[in-house]
Design brief:
heterotrimer, A alpha/beta (481), B alpha+beta (473), C mainly alpha (97), A: 481 residues, alpha/beta, Amidase signature (AS) enzymes, 11-stranded mixed β-sheet, two-stranded antiparallel ribbon, globular, B: 473 residues, alpha+beta, Arc Repressor Mutant, subunit A, 3 domains, 8-stranded mixed β-sheet, 3-stranded antiparallel β-sheet, 15 helices, 15 strands, 40% helix, 20% strand
């Protein structure tokens, strides 16, 4: 499957036109829609913007929680099922200005609150490698659209691992840069202190190209970082000899997973193989120990913080200035009705949990303790980053789960292995998942998480590992597992 | 009689070009839903971006109220559902308000009193609701307008104290240029806490809160009504309920809204979209240097240094521009009392009558200075100065020019006056005789001199000369 | 201990309702979260740590200068409102506060 650079060459050499690329993408999008359900909206008209950027004329897909003026944006929730924004998110605007061509808005877990890709209001998203399996979420459609070869890249958002987990399950690259590197203006907020904008791509270079376009300070986002005088694509081929990586013993040691199935053990084996591969490349890779109590607390803390912020962030969904109007004779009744009908049960449960956590009498015990735990984790990471340049870990303890076999993230066995990528959100660290081969015919991924602000080095490291592993541009159609 | 204790929470809109967290216009608009940005409407995906000027003015107010200021900028979310709150939360300050533990000095009936400020914090205003028969209409223009809330300790014990505090606070808003503080536009609103207790009781009585009172007069009426209502309850042996009440400005009574049991938990937490910004000492010093001397200190100065009465001082400091005007004339060398007299007895009346602000007033301090100096030096009489004053304003001419044109310069020349006096005395030796016998004929001669000079003779000089010439005979 | 009635009350304050099974499931989730959070509460010195609100603090943020910029048009403001009148959003009469 062609990368952005391949398509750029084809466009520049006039082997193909941007219209042809768009039509081809639209055709594929429609062809796969019924089977895989990647999109909420597939565009019927091409946006005519051109620039001299690398992505000008190249099709892409956008998660349906980015505000797009004049284009339906639902966040895959009934409460926004007819919402047509009157403004553009900064990410979308930058892509438009760069001449990228929007193919469609992709399905997510309702309001981005979920990790399965099964809770969107227009139905479940299926994994291109096996229709009976999830692609993961919440950026499910964005992952699937790249994994299906509809588009060379797509945009997602990542609050816990919402880009990096589905990337692993779909055999594609998923990158979220440092918190603040890309403006969040126009991204429908889930948990503001953890939300990141990021992308899916076929290879690390493409992820760097897209991030180069998206990054930059935005006067609309106070948390956006000042511009850097650097292009990631210029540095990803730098020599990495002597760079130091670490992995966490408590997460990767096979002997700690006594009851684990073959699949998990195989994933851990593959991970260790990749570690050896890294050493051959010239990396120094070391095992470090990380307090297991802290690791086990990642998911509950993540749930606590994200649910609390989410209940507040979604208080604007009342059906009054926008959204479906509820029925009733009083103001409270219409808000009540709109919200009762508009949210699925899963969302309501999270909101109740979140508001309980924020109640005066529970804040100290729940909300603040979760914030304290977050602090301890980030401090420990920053201490490790004094010695090491990045952390490398398996992105998941299993391949994409089957629909009837949902993983329980709270079960002791998976508590750490399935949730550690939230560390990247806790500290705002740049974090990327790249394919690491196959287990049982399904793609698996490894995750590389770097020092805060060092997106360039993180991409550089990932690019070098990707080169060595050779899993690049995987799509089922072209790949015989 | 019971002892009354009052605490106030005063909301005041901050004067800025744009809103607190968006770039939408912050102006009074005749048309609904025109001054709105995505952020003010709480659309999905919006982010607040804090306004530097709004924060600066808030710090200025905090410093003017002698508050301690924080080391970093921090905002919190206050979560509740109401149709005038489009985001479903209000961005306010709970953790680190712009000011805590301050005070403001007021003077009630000649007595100084320190009003303690618990805190002052910056937040955003809500949308406005207009009510009709079966429906309400929402205008989001006001949503997001910077709003500064000043919270006092429960330390006031009478209606007079509460009102004097409000007037003083309003004055400080105007003096510091933080707000226009116009109650007629709803820019200043007030919550009142009030409790009654036995004169010798150690603990405060049960607190009743009255929300959102929109004028100082209504604050007065609401407090008076509550004192009466609570007094009656206590006298009959009853218990005052801890509750929130609403003041009805039509029948001038208060009505229960909700009791303490239904108190809302606002689930405050730190606003995650506004990262901490350091407040430097330099910034604080810069802001401090921009705070002018306030009314309370000005009154003290006018009384002590210029010998003005409290009454006149109070009148002058009521409007900072008037007070500045007054001080400028003094810096130009005018006698403070003369200047104060002219301002309080003539200028303010004129401004009032013509609905003018002193800043739009033709007569500059320099002109007033010229005018008063002409009086003080005897060039014109004080009666003439009024004539000149009005002529100046009528024709937009400087006092010197007017005096020349009217030809109303006083006769101060000794010889001219003496010649007239001698002539008059020669004509009426009988009256000189009467004068010696103790009859007052002196004023007759003064009057005659004025008549001969058509009022231009300087009265002081004239009197001296008459006295001298009479002595001679 | 939190009861189903409590949950119903919390939901009502969040302006929604759901069916009984939903509350049952919520109750179970509460137990799990509480159990895990209890462990966090037992972590040594946890109380001495400042709760983290931002992923990192470097004080790079800047205020916005106080300049008024373009506003939404009235049409844009009302574009997604389902009931409008006289250029405003109409709702059933708001009584009480």
């Amino acid at each position: 499957m062609k990368t952005i650079m391949d398509l750029r060459k084809d466009l520049d050499e006039k082997k193909v036109t941007s219209d042809e690329l768009f039509n081809e993408a639209i055709d594929k999008a429609h062809k796969y829609q019924e089977e895989f359900n990647s999109f909420v909206t597939i565009m019927d008209k091409k946006e005519e913007n051109e620039s001299n950027s690398l992505i000008s004329g190249i099709p892409y897909a956008l998660k349906d929680n980015f505000s797009t003026k004049g284009i339906l944006t639902t966040a895959s929730s009934n409460i926004l099922k007819d919402y047509v924004p009157v403004y553009d998110s900064t990410a979308y605007k930058k892509l438009k200005d760069a001449g990228a061509v929007l193919v469609g808005k992709t399905v997510l877990d309702e309001l981005a609150m979920g990790g399965t890709g099964t809770t969107g209001h227009t139905g479940i998203v299926r994994n291109p490698w096996d229709k009976n399996r999830e692609i993961g979420g919440s950026s499910a459609g964005s992952a699937a659209s790249v994994a299906l070869g509809i588009v060379p890249f797509s945009i997602g958002s990542d609050t816990g691992d919402s880009i990096r987990k589905p990337a692993a399950f779909g055999g594609v690259v998923g990158f979220k840069p440092t918190y603040g590197r890309i403006s969040r203006y126009g991204l429908f907020a889930f948990a503001s202190s953890l939300d990141h904008v990021g992308c899916f791509a076929r290879c690390v270079r493409d992820a760097a190209i897209v991030t180069d376009i998206l990054k930059g300070q935005d006067e609309r986002d106070m948390t956006s970082l000042p511009d850097e005088d650097i292009k990631y694509t210029d540095v990803i081929d730098n020599d990495i000899k002597g760079k130091k990586l670490f992995y966490i013993k408590e997460i990767t040691d096979k002997t700690l997973y006594k009851d684990a199935g073959e699949e998990t053990l195989e994933i851990l084996d593959k991970f260790k193989e990749t570690v050896e591969e890294c050493k051959k490349l010239g990396f120094i890779v070391e095992e470090v120990s990380f307090d297991e109590k802290l690791l086990k607390a990642i998911y509950p803390s993540y749930m606590t913080i994200s649910s609390s912020e989410a209940t507040s962030n979604n208080s604007n969904l009342t059906g009054i200035p926008f959204g479906p109007r509820g029925e009733g004779g009083s103001i409270n009744e219409i808000m009540f009705d709109a919200r009762t009908k508009g949210f699925s049960e899963l969302i309501k449960r999270r909101f109740i949990l979140g508001s309980y956590i924020l109640q005066r009498e529970n804040q100290e015990r729940l909300f603040k303790n979760a914030g304290r735990l977050r602090h301890l984790i980030v401090d420990k990471m920053n201490e490790l980053y004094k010695t090491y340049d990045a952390m490398i870990l398996p992105a998941s303890g299993g391949v994409a789960p089957k629909f009837d076999n949902e993983i329980d993230r709270m079960s002791d066995r998976y508590l750490i292995l399935e949730n550690h990528m939230a560390i990247g959100n806790f500290g705002g660290f740049p974090s990327i998942t790249i394919p690491n081969g196959f287990v049982n015919g399904m793609p698996i991924g490894i995750n590389i998480t770097g020092r805060v602000f060092e997106d360039a080095l993180t991409l550089n490291i990932a690019n070098k590992i990707e080169e060595a592993l050779g899993y690049k541009g995987l799509i089922k159609e072209e790949y015989d597992v | 009689m019971y002892k009354v204790t009052i605490g106030l929470e005063v909301h005041c809109e901050v004067k800025t070009n744009s809103k607190n967290f968006s770039s939408a216009r912050n102006t009074y608009s005749e048309y609904p839903n025109e001054n709105i940005d995505t952020t003010d409407l709480g659309l999905p995906g919006i982010l607040p971006v804090a306004n530097k000027e709004a924060f600066k003015k808030s710090l200025k107010m905090a410093l003017a109220l002698n508050c301690k200021t924080p080391d970093v900028v921090m905002f919190d979310r206050k979560n509740y559902y109401y149709p005038d709150l489009p985001k479903g939360y209000q961005i306010t300050q709970e953790t680190k308000p712009v000011g805590v533990n301050g005070y403001v000095m007021i003077n009630v009936n000649g007595e100084d009193k320190k009003i303690l400020i618990n805190n002052i914090h910056l937040e955003e205003d809500t949308a406005s609701l207009d009510h009709f028969g079966t429906y309400s209409l929402i205008d989001y223009n006001r949503a997001g307008v910077p709003l500064l809330e000043t919270v006092t300790e429960p330390c006031m014990h009478s209606v007079e104290e509460a009102l004097t505090f409000l007037e003083t606070l309003k004055g400080i808003f105007l003096y510091t240029d933080v707000s226009e503080a116009r109650t007629d536009r709803g820019q200043m609103r007030c919550d009142v806490n009030i409790s009654l207790m036995e004169e010798d009781a150690k603990e405060l009585g049960t607190k009743v809160e009255m929300k959102n009172i929109n004028s100082f007069n209504n604050v007065k009426l609401a407090i008076e009504y509550e004192i009466k209502r609570q007094t009656e309850i206590l006298k009959s042996g009853g218990k005052v309920l801890q509750e929130t009440r609403r003041f009805d400005d039509e029948d001038l009574k208060t009505y229960p809204m909700r009791s303490k049991v239904d108190a809302v938990d606002y689930k405050y937490y730190i606003e995650p979209n506004i990262p901490p910004i350091k407040i430097t000492d330099e910034w604080i010093e810069e802001i401090k240097s921009e705070i002018p001397m306030l009314q309370f200190e000005r009154v003290e100065k006018y009384m002590k240094d210029y010998g003005l009465s409290r009454y006149d001082s109070d009148i002058i400091v009521k409007d900072k521009n008037v007070s500045d005007y007054f001080e400028e004339t003094i810096s130009l060398g005018v006698n403070p009392k003369s200047s104060a007299n002219f301002i309080t007895s003539i200028i303010l009346g004129y401004l009032n009558k013509h609905e003018l602000s002193i800043t739009d007033f033709y007569l500059t301090p320099q002109m007033l200075c010229d005018l008063i100096k002409m009086v003080d030096s005897g060039k014109i009489s004080s009666k003439q100065s009024k004539e000149v004053f009005f002529k100046c304003l009528e024709e937009n001419k400087e006092p010197g020019v007017v005096v020349k044109e009217l030809g109303i310069t006083q006769v101060t020349d000794d010889k001219t006056i003496r010649d007239i006096v001698v002539k008059l005395l020669d004509e009426r030796p009988d009256l000189i005789e009467d004068h010696r016998k103790g009859k007052n004929t002196f004023d007759y001669f003064v009057g005659q001199v004025m008549k001969e000079t058509r009022g231009k003779a300087n009265p002081g000089i004239t009197a001296n000369i008459i006295r001298e010439e009479m002595e001679k005979r | 201990m939190v009861t189903k009635e409590n949950l119903k009350d919390y939901a009502a304050k969040l302006m929604f309702d759901m069916d009984d099974e939903g509350y049952e499931r919520t109750l179970k989730e509460f137990e799990t979260v509480e159990k895990h959070m209890e462990l966090i509460g037992k972590i040594e010195n946890i109380k001495s740590v400042e709760p983290m609100t931002f992923p990192y603090v470097i004080y790079h943020a800047n205020f916005r200068e106080d300049e008024a910029k373009d506003c939404l048009t009235n049409e844009e403001v009302l574009a997604n409102a389902k009931d409008t009148k006289a250029n405003q959003v109409r709702v059933p009469k708001v009584v009480g506060e």
